[in-house]
């Protein structure tokens, strides 16, 4: 099987712009250039467009239009929700509750507040990636100002018990913020039924433009601006409005609401087929979050003896785009903080890849992906077997096209090699993310073959894997930990 274009399976990271969203935004780059608050026909047209977009964004979550504040994206919305609420209520307490698996825009904002003298409780999750409402209730103090728990996790897709937690917050009179950047447009959200005070939306996660988002703020919520400026967006988000982005975001919300039921059914079917085929055909596969209620489009899986970055690189060489451990981890380390919080053994956190589907994916994409993954996993395991205990070198190239050409040239030669990610210590521009690993003993021979073919080699480095194969003693230890957790129903 072959493809004429890349297969994008990273919709949890971002999504392509919906054609209808692109269509409505284009005029606002041109002749609809007025500001919404200006007293002119140009301004009136822009104001009507913004008002319609606000109604559409509100409709996605069954809110009132005046409760929607447009922002630059999910990160700003999370910052405004947390900082704006805490600063508004700071005289009443100094404690915040969040979870250990939140997005970095929540975790790092809470750590900032810790440096400012506030106290934060990071409640744990269980081995299936779910927050226990009882842990939230136990963490509540008399000075708790805010609870911030995501609706669904961006790594595993596990849906959190928001309804139960919202009732705890309401009972205790605590403001409740929900990061729904990953879930909005994928599963139903109704803020009239859920006592949520603030809710984050992100445009580019639901086929809208990048650089746009919104924060739902219930009319009764206490919040202050975190930026200083003029009076746009009720004074909570000062600055000239991004009219094209707002209009397109509104359309994306409208399309997501209209097609939510059919897309949810289709994505669930595709995700289940992908999961069944991966676990059925590839040995040593572990699905993270399995057994919990999950978003319909996300599958997080690891494979014994295969690092996620290596698998992602091999899939990239086959024109399949997924997220690996290093891209999932927002904290600069080698292991995903989400999987660590789920008490996943280190070798499995390093092995993780996330595949996330979109409405444009089809059944044949699933079959093609599983076939390529099976080949990639087998190839990585075989290379690991023949190169075990030897020093490895990595060739880097100026661009992906050169890397792919090099891989094609080396196919069928006697020297083992494998596509791999660019070494982490190469941070400057001019290197393709896709590189090539071989045994150091074969460096000169492979370099000669590529040189004879006029391949531009950017550099050669020693391979420093993000996750080394565990020694037998370490494996025995983690196997015992897993057994204890199972016996305790951890």
Structure description:
Residues 330-335 and 466-475 have low confidence and may be disordered. The chain has helices spanning 19-25, 41-61, 74-89, 104-115, 133-139, 162-172, 243-281, 308-317, 325-328, 337-341, 346-350, 363-387, 400-410, 443-452, 472-488, and strands at residues 7-8, 68-71, 95-99, 119-123, 144-148, 175-179, 198-202, 213-217, 285-287, 298-303, 320-321, 323-324, 353-356, 392-396, 417-421, 434-439, 459-462. It has 15 helices and 17 strands. α1 (19-25) packs antiparallel against α7 (243-281), α7 packs across α12 (363-387) and α8 packs across α12. The longest helix has 39 residues, at 243-281. It is globular and about 70 Å long. With 490 residues, the protein is α/β, with parallel strands linked by helices. β3 (95-99), α4 and β4 (119-123) form a beta-alpha-beta unit. The protein starts with 6 loop residues before the first strand and ends with a helix. It has a domain at 19-257: Type I PLP-dependent aspartate aminotransferase-like (Major domain) (Aspartate Aminotransferase, domain 2, 3-Layer(aba) Sandwich). The protein has a 7-stranded mixed beta sheet, with helices on both faces.
Give the secondary structure arrangement, pairings included.
Layout: E1 7-8, H1 19-25, H2 41-61, E2 68-71, H3 74-89, E3 95-99, H4 104-115, E4 119-123, H5 133-139, E5 144-148, H6 162-172, E6 175-179, E7 198-202, E8 213-217, H7 243-281, E9 285-287, E10 298-303, H8 308-317, E11 320-321, E12 323-324, H9 325-328, H10 337-341, H11 346-350, E13 353-356, H12 363-387, E14 392-396, H13 400-410, E15 417-421, E16 434-439, H14 443-452, E17 459-462, H15 472-488
Parallel strand pairs: 1-11, 3-4, 3-5, 5-6, 6-7
Antiparallel strand pairs: 2-8, 7-8, 9-10, 10-13, 12-13, 14-16, 14-17, 15-16
């Amino acid at each position: 099987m072959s493809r004429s274009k890349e297969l994008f399976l990273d919709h949890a990271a971002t999504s392509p712009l919906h054609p209808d969203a692109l269509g409505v935004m284009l005029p606002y780059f041109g002749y609809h250039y007025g500001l919404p608050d200006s007293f002119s026909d140009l301004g009136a047209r822009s104001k009507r467009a913004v008002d319609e977009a606000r109604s559409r964004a509100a409709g996605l979550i069954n809110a009132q239009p005046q409760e929607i504040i447009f922002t630059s994206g999910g990160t700003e919305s999370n910052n405004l929700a947390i900082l704006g609420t805490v600063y508004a209520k700071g005289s009443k307490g100094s404690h915040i509750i969040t979870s250990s698996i939140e997005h970095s825009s929540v975790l790092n904002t809470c750590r900032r507040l810790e440096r400012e003298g506030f106290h934060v409780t990071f409640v744990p999750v269980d081995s299936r990636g779910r927050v226990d409402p009882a842990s939230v209730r136990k963490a509540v103090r008399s000075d708790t100002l805010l609870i911030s728990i995501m609706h669904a996790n961006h790594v595993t897709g596990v849906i959190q018990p928001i309804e139960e937690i919202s009732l705890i917050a309401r009972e205790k009179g605590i403001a409740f913020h929900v990061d729904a950047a990953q879930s909005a447009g994928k599963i139903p959200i109704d803020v009239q039924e859920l006592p949520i005070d603030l809710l984050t939306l992100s445009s580019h996660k639901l086929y809208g433009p990048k650089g746009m988002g919104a924060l739902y703020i219930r009319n009764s919520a206490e919040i202050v601006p975190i930026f200083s400026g003029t009076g746009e967006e009720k004074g909570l988000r000062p600055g000239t409005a991004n009219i094209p982005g707002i209009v397109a975001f509104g359309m994306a919300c409208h399309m997501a609401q209209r097609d939510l039921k059919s897309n949810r059914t289709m994505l669930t079917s595709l995700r289940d087929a992908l999961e069944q085929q991966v676990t059925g055909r590839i040995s040593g596969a572990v699905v993270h979050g399995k057994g919990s209620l999950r978003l319909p489009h996300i599958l997080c899986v690891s494979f014994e003896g295969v690092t996620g970055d290596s698998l992602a690189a091999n899939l990239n060489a086959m024109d399949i785009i997924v997220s690996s451990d290093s891209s999932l981890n927002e904290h600069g380390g080698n292991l995903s903080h989400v999987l660590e919080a789920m008490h996943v053994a280190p070798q499995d956190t390093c092995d993780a890849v996330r595949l996330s589907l979109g409405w444009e994916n089809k059944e044949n994409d699933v079959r093609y992906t599983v076939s390529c993954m099976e080949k990639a996993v087998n190839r990585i395991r075989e290379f690991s077997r023949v190169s075990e205990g030897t020093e490895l070198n990595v060739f880097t190239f100026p661009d992906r096209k050169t890397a792919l050409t090099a891989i094609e040239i080396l196919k069928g030669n006697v020297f083992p090699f494998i596509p791999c990610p660019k070494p982490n210590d190469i941070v400057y521009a001019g290197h393709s993310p896709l590189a090539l690993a071989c045994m150091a003993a074969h460096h000169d021979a492979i370099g000669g073959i590529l040189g004879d073919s006029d391949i531009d080699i950017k550099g050669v480095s020693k391979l420093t894997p993000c996750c080394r194969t565990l020694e037998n003693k370490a494996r025995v230890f983690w196997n015992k930990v897993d057994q204890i957790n199972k016996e305790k129903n951890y």
